Amino acid sequence: SKPKVFVTNYNIPKKGLDLLKSCEVVQWQSEETIQREDLIKNVKGIDALFCILTDKIDGTLLDACGPQLKAVGTMSVGYDHIDMKACKERGIPVGFTPDVLTDATAELTVALLLATSRRLMEGAGAVRSGEWGMWNPQWMCGQGLHHSTVGIFGLGRIGLAVAKRLRPFGISQLLYSGRKENPAAKEVDAEFVSFDTLLSESDFVIAGCALNSETKEIFNEDTFKKMKPTAIFVNSSRGGVVDQKALYEALKSGQIKAAGLDVTTPEPLPTDSPLLDLKNCVVLPHIGSATVEARNAMAELTARNIMAALNGEQMPCQIE
Ligand code: GLV
Ligand code: GLV
């Protein structure tokens, strides 16, 4: 009989689903995020799970699938929603989607740098509201990227792609920090520094790290205090790396200049979040990888990961 695959979201690109045509595919049909109880109900007896980053995958869920489960594939590069220890203990390989979303996410990160430093949302708002009175020599001025020092915390695939895109803007210095040096840093002339140095020297501080026990709320009251009052903080990784209340206070008090966030806690960010009252904060709805090309490729890779495991082969992109 055909292997059963449960797909947790109704809106997966067809290019990905097409690759599962030899399977019996059951797909969550609601436009609402699948809730935990429904997920547990729907995974019973499946051979593979095609999930997204809003699904929490833990031991309880894996056990609810049953012993015939052979693969989990997440259509994301981040896997902080997956308990990898629980998967390993049960011998379940987990596929993810690195590389195919790197360019799209790096591009969006650069867009956030520009949106914040050149005050794009504020400016566009002023045009609409009529607050734009005249061409004014010292109105709506920002810092710009040219001649700036940029610090990237976590120079991985995406961080490096951001760095490559920033060089042509004429930034003067590129710093990075993290657990260890990245040999590829020399391609972009990035200097490995301590986290404290990165915080105190950078005009732009970019969170490019994965969310894990070491990086949870690593951007907090203490770290915002170490940044320049002109610093701009940009996060396109995971909301959980930021103590969001501390960020709000830092933005409100002028401890730092501005922030650009593609990710928040929670998501969606409630419309009454105080962050949304701040002119110096740009919040986007987790769209880093949201190009047609990247999302198609992510769906295809997730399906290929799952099919490989179902066929007893190594996944093309398996989480170690
Ligand atoms: C998006 O946030 C991803 O992890 O792919
Ligand atoms: C600006 O539009 C200028 O002409 O300097």
UniProtKB/TrEMBL annotation:
<dbReference type="GO" id="GO:0030267">
    <property type="term" value="F:glyoxylate reductase (NADPH) activity"/>
</dbReference>
<dbReference type="Pfam" id="PF02826">
    <property type="entry name" value="2-Hacid_dh_C"/>
</dbReference>
<dbReference type="GO" id="GO:0051287">
    <property type="term" value="F:NAD binding"/>
</dbReference>
<feature type="domain" description="D-isomer specific 2-hydroxyacid dehydrogenase NAD-binding">
    <location>
        <begin position="110"/>
        <end position="288"/>
    </location>
</feature>
<dbReference type="GO" id="GO:0008465">
    <property type="term" value="F:hydroxypyruvate reductase (NADH) activity"/>
</dbReference>
<protein>
    <recommendedName>
        <fullName>Glyoxylate reductase/hydroxypyruvate reductase</fullName>
    </recommendedName>
</protein>
<dbReference type="InterPro" id="IPR006139">
    <property type="entry name" value="D-isomer_2_OHA_DH_cat_dom"/>
</dbReference>
<dbReference type="InterPro" id="IPR029753">
    <property type="entry name" value="D-isomer_DH_CS"/>
</dbReference>
<dbReference type="Pfam" id="PF00389">
    <property type="entry name" value="2-Hacid_dh"/>
</dbReference>
<feature type="domain" description="D-isomer specific 2-hydroxyacid dehydrogenase catalytic">
    <location>
        <begin position="7"/>
        <end position="316"/>
    </location>
</feature>
<dbReference type="InterPro" id="IPR006140">
    <property type="entry name" value="D-isomer_DH_NAD-bd"/>
</dbReference>
<dbReference type="InterPro" id="IPR050223">
    <property type="entry name" value="D-isomer_2-hydroxyacid_DH"/>
</dbReference>
<dbReference type="GO" id="GO:0005829">
    <property type="term" value="C:cytosol"/>
</dbReference>
<dbReference type="InterPro" id="IPR036291">
    <property type="entry name" value="NAD(P)-bd_dom_sf"/>
</dbReference>
<keyword id="KW-0560">Oxidoreductase</keyword>
<comment type="similarity">
    <text>Belongs to the D-isomer specific 2-hydroxyacid dehydrogenase family.</text>
</comment>
